[in-house]
Design brief:
about 425 residues; alpha/beta; six-stranded parallel sheet; 16 helices
Length: about 425
């Protein structure tokens, strides 16, 4: 069984590409089912976040499924195959395992150390598990990835003072305004990123936070938890002239703010500057909004300055985490190689037991009548001999597997007549 990962991230594709390939919650179940039906795919999982879209599969076939996965992603998201290929990376075996561990540990994140990606990966795993597209092999790798992330959090300071995309958005707003004390801020959305944004806004000194969301109950809950006020979703456009900053983080599959909308808003504001920060993928705000006088629009890729500062301050800690990743990858590879010979080890033990029982049956006539205690002693004696015979070959088989010596497996199988 082999692991393959095909996908793209903030490192290989801009937001306008990522948003076209992102899977909505409503699309994922069908996509997982279709993925599992692809030739050679034994298990499959899809991770889709604002910064990455990745497909991980386990395959026991001999052909490279990379091109097939690239085509599957393009076809599923209804984009041209030739258009998407330049943005994709393809990883297999050791590199795929290392990538999975780094993603879980947030070392591959835009904001190194951010905590959200582990929860997103766990959600992707749980969804695949619920739809029966993940089992033994990928389950083992995901479980190990979660443990590796936990070890890095406990053994390094990577998680200390960790920031997130939401934090970066607020820092960008603070950089623009200097002080946010007098700013009126509207947060569009009520998910985890929106909640984080509200929390950071409060810490930054914002006293007037408005929340709007298509589902009013979620907006009310978020506003109540953080001392904000709700603006009904159907009214938020008419209320926009009142606010100075908009942080958009809704799950809407379309633009909730367009260029025409903002022209009207700026007319009502008498062209007082307004800052829009769009951290949603797919984007919530039409890029053409940036051409409206007085409007300054930033998207998730514009947070790079905050990201660079985060990376600079975490280089030493990240290096420690990378060392742990390398250790864990080697340990995982050794475990997987040992796992490959487990069926042969079981077969050896079963074959030796058959020979032991057969020879004991032949000797019963010569042994005469034995008491239960004597019979128990004979059983123990023969089992002990069989275990001693098996110990050497089995140990050699395991060590050879760890070194990648496939020839030894063939030799042992012939030696014990398993072929």
């Amino acid at each position: 069984m082999k692991i393959y990962i095909t996908g793209l991230s903030h490192k290989t594709a801009p937001v306008e590409v990522r948003e076209r390939l992102a899977f909505g919650d409503q699309n994922l179940p069908q996509a997982l089912t279709s993925l599992r039906e692809q030739p050679g795919v034994r298990e499959g999982m899809i991770l889709s976040t604002c910064n990455r879209v990745e497909i991980a599969i386990a395959s026991d076939g001999d052909t490279d499924p990379g091109p097939q996965l690239a085509d599957f992603l393009a076809d599923t998201r209804q984009v041209e195959r030739s258009w998407v290929r330049p943005f994709l990376y393809r990883l297999e075996e050791r590199e795929a395992i290392r990538h999975l561990f780094r993603v879980a540990s947030s070392l591959d994140s835009m904001i190194v150390g951010e905590p959200q990606i582990l929860g997103q990966l766990k959600s992707a795993y749980a969804l695949a598990k619920a739809h029966g597209t993940i089992s033994g092999f990928l389950e083992l790798l995901c479980s190990r990835a979660f443990n590796v992330a936990k070890r890095i959090r406990s053994d390094t300071d990577l998680g200390e003072n960790a920031v997130s995309v939401s934090y970066s958005a607020v820092e960008l707003a603070r950089e623009i305004f200097g002080s946010l004390d007098e700013c009126r801020v509207l947060v569009a959305g009520a998910g985890k990123m929106a909640e984080s944004a509200v929390r950071y806004l409060r810490r930054a000194g914002v006293t007037q936070v408005f929340v709007t969301n298509r589902t009013r109950e979620r907006a009310e809950r978020l506003a109540a938890d953080h001392g904000g006020a709700v603006i009904p979703y159907e009214e938020f456009l008419s209320r926009l002239p009142e606010v100075d900053i908009v942080i958009a983080s809704s799950g809407a599959p379309h633009f909730i703010l367009t260029r025409d909308d903002m022209r009207k808003v700026m007319g009502a504001r008498r062209n007082r500057p307004m800052f829009l920060i769009d951290i949603a993928v797919p984007r919530n705000i039409e890029p053409a909004v940036n051409r409206v006088d007085g409007v300054f629009l930033y998207d998730i890729d514009d947070l790079q300055k905050v990201v660079d500062q985060n990376l600079h301050g975490r280089r030493t800690v990240a290096a420690e985490a990378e060392q742990i990743i390398e250790e864990e990858v080697e340990r995982m590879i050794a475990r997987l190689k040992a796992r490959e010979v487990s069926p042969a080890i079981v077969s050896i033990q079963e074959q030796l037991e058959l020979w032991r029982v057969a020879e004991l049956d032949k000797a019963r006539g010569r042994l005469g009548s034995l008491t239960p205690q004597q019979m128990e002693a004979v059983e123990a004696l023969t089992r002990g001999l069989v275990n001693k015979v098996a110990h050497g070959p089995i140990s050699l088989l395991r060590k050879s597997a760890e070194k990648g010596d496939a020839e030894m497996l063939s030799v042992v199988r012939r030696l014990f007549r398993l072929e």
